[in-house]
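Much of what follows relies on a compact textual record of a protein's fold. A complete example follows; check for yourself that the lines match position by position.
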Amino acid sequence: MKKRFITFAGAVGLLAGLANLCAASAHAQVASSVAVRNVDEKGRSPYMQFQAHPCPGRGNTVCDVIFPPVPAGKRLVLEHVSSSILFANNGVRIAGLLAPVEIFFFFPVHPSSPTPSKDPIFLVNEFTLAYFEAGQSPIFHLVVNNGADTPLVTSTMSGYLVDLVQ
């Protein structure tokens, strides 16, 4: 019986020592914590812009949908581009994102079901990763077939803004 009592007392003492050690460790962690701001968090400054743009008429094969410039002190991280291109006839040859310094992102163009008026619709829906600095404007660039009617282009770009001023 005495042996069990000594073993029990030793176990209680060991548990008390561990509890004291854990409490001291937790207190040290709380005392040394530093407040941190995650300035690059996507949710802090989301970006989503929509543009509807009628392109030039017959004879022009290029259409640029120009989005607003990036605000001063910010960087735009563009993550997604979608677009709907409505024609009365013909079609799209090239679609993509025109970035600064002559960089071009090509996007596949998918034909969709015609509208009730039988006008064909072409769609772009792409994840991407592109960066635009303050003052630069993202451009959705479209090249259409020769003789195409005036297309109506609607585009949405989304991502987030990073604050460059710390």
